Amino acid sequence: MSSEHEQQQSRLSSEQAEQLSEESRTDLELTLPHNRSQTSIVSFVECALVELTHEDVGAEFVSTSVAGVKRTQFIAVDDVGQRFQKRYFDERLGWHETTVSREAVREELVNRLTQRSSLGCGVGQHGVVGDPDKFQVMPVRKLRVQE
Question: How many domains does the chain have?
Answer without folding.
Answer: 1
